[in-house]
């Protein structure tokens, strides 16, 4: 009975009967060319398979070569599959040399614990030598896998699986076997040296593009995703290029999804470690305060961590200013918001005071985070009362115009001053269809930075000439919410802040944590805060040991003003009162400086807590800055104490974070993943309507060469006329 191409069995003797034959008899008949072994056939067994059943000794077998046949026929006990036979012929001396060289390859010395790992590693090895292998057959009761050159396979019409193309001369294949030897039970899979053929012949194929199953097991690819679950195409492609692999974009993202899905199996169990994590965090007094929240269904609803060391560092500094915002999570597992409140230390560096997670950005969620921050008790020495600092009338907090923030601020610390981010106001104005964009950002910044109401009105007039609608838009915003002159009148120092860029930069600083689930994100935030404190502590100690009086930031700003001080003509009225006049001319301004009260009519001294160029010019004229001793005495008198290196160094010595060992945490049995909530504005709920449905009309494009519609200049039919 003839065997059709694509069949997996024939009417020859069964696999069990054929398996029991004596190897000497099989070898004798092989030399007579009466037995043909077929690649991937389930009706016969190669010599190495037989060796795998009986031990690890490699059977001496002739080299297996592919011989094309036109018609597949039954030859008594000759199993045929896919129209191709591997015929046992007596090997030539050159074939023996090639076989010996092949056996020396490292891949033939490897062993694997499971079939998937074995197949993946073999395919990856093949790609490394610019070749490619695909799985052709899995047979022998799960004891064998045959991988062949893809050029050998063809899918016939009506067939469900591919079969061997007899017209292809290439006979490359790799046969994986599973040993039954007890000594090899841990790593039973190995490559058959006799049945495998490494060299490709006249197939014209190279490695091509790797499959998602191969790539997802590579260390470089998995490492890139471990560092950032939201890794972009460029990052992942760079990791693959390092391994010499290229693949399609769709396959790359399938591999990315597979890796993330594997992580999600343990993702749910991590929620049961959140409460133990917070408990361990709270046990270290230097850490601060942490709180994790679950709803009535034991599902995760929020997390807040307050860092005592950072809060003390901000409160010890001169800037009574904070910044607050939320940012979207970048994790494929956790969909929610990352809360952050930051401040400025004495070196004007971004300092994370509090961080947390919540499902959405709303007033209720802001209140929960802020409530935890207000509940943190002062340190044992009585310093650093965060509750009093946040509720103080001197406290100013910058934020964007998110709807949830103003109400939350009013509910938690109503006496504090709320300021809007000017940069967000400009962005919102440009996005408003009613506002004409015929204005520059500089016009708006000029309005914001005016020290007097008269100057603000003059700046508004310039804006109105360029864009009346923009002037109306900004006039409708209360000046006390974003302009500087009301703060000058109220004596509220802003230290030069106009935006909430500090917290925006913090969102970028926390990008790595935003790509993880709650537990891993919390651990990474703690680690980054600890690392940042360590770095600042070392830098401050170096500056302090070198004898610097001011912090690096305060020192650089003082130098900027000091360089410009000689440009002013100074007249002294008393030892502490003088006048500094700029360049002569109609635009020259005279500034009044009172050294005793630390004031200047330019208001820079009051706003920044550092002397301006006018004050430095008057002090030099009065002889207060003479020699190192005079400079140090003047700086200590004129600059806010919070900018002193000694106090900054002292505050950093007390600030630290103790990490929680995740490996030692025991799950408490409670806690389930949160139910993802659609974020505001995503996804679009209404499709964009076409012109026929009353939507925006389609833009008509004209050719740049002939001016006609219906084509562009690249395909212009009139280009030659």
State the gist of this model.
It is built from 28 helices and 20 strands.
Summarize the structure in words.
This protein has 721 residues and is an alpha+beta fold. The protein has 28 helices and 20 strands. A hairpin with a 4-residue loop joins β17 (569-572) and β18 (577-581). It has a seven-stranded mixed β-sheet, with helices on both faces. Strands 4-5-8-9 form a four-stranded antiparallel β-sheet, sandwiched between helices. Strands 17-18-19-20 form a four-stranded antiparallel β-sheet. It is 39% helix and 14% strand. Mean pLDDT is 79; it is low at 1-92. The protein is globular. The longest helix has 28 residues, at 518-545. Among the domains are: 15-106 and 130-202, no CATH class; 550-643, no CATH class; 688-721, no CATH class.
Structural key phrases:
alpha+beta, 721 residues, four-stranded antiparallel β-sheet, globular, seven-stranded mixed β-sheet
Arithmetic mean pLDDT: 79
Q: Give the number of helices.
A: 28
Q: Strand fraction band?
A: 5-15%
How big is the Rg? 38 Å
Query: Main β-sheet: number of strands, strand sense, barrel status?
Result: 7 strands, mixed
What is the β-strand count? 20
Helical coverage, percent range: 25-40%
Q: How would you describe the shape?
A: globular
Q: How far do the termini sit from each other?
A: 73 Å
Low-pLDDT sequence parts: 1-92
Which strands sit side by side, in order, in the main sheet? 10-11-14-13-12-15-16
> What structural class do helix, strand and pairing data support?
alpha+beta
Question: What's the helix and strand layout?
Answer:
Elements lengths: L14 H5 L3 H9 L4 E2 L9 H8 L9 E5 L15 E5 L4 H11 L11 H14 L5 E6 L4 E5 L4 E2 L8 E2 L8 E6 L10 E3 L20 H4 L3 H9 L5 H10 L6 H22 L3 H10 L4 E7 L5 E8 H9 L4 E8 L8 E8 L5 E9 L4 H13 L10 H6 L4 E4 L4 H9 L4 E4 L1 H10 L9 H8 L4 H14 L1 H8 L3 H4 L2 H6 L10 H9 L1 H4 L3 H28 L6 H13 L4 E4 L4 E5 L8 E5 L4 E2 L3 H5 L4 H9 L5 H12 L6 H10 L67
Parallel strand pairs: 12-15, 15-16
Antiparallel strand pairs: 1-3, 2-3, 4-5, 5-8, 6-7, 8-9, 10-11, 11-14, 12-13, 13-14, 17-18, 18-19, 19-20
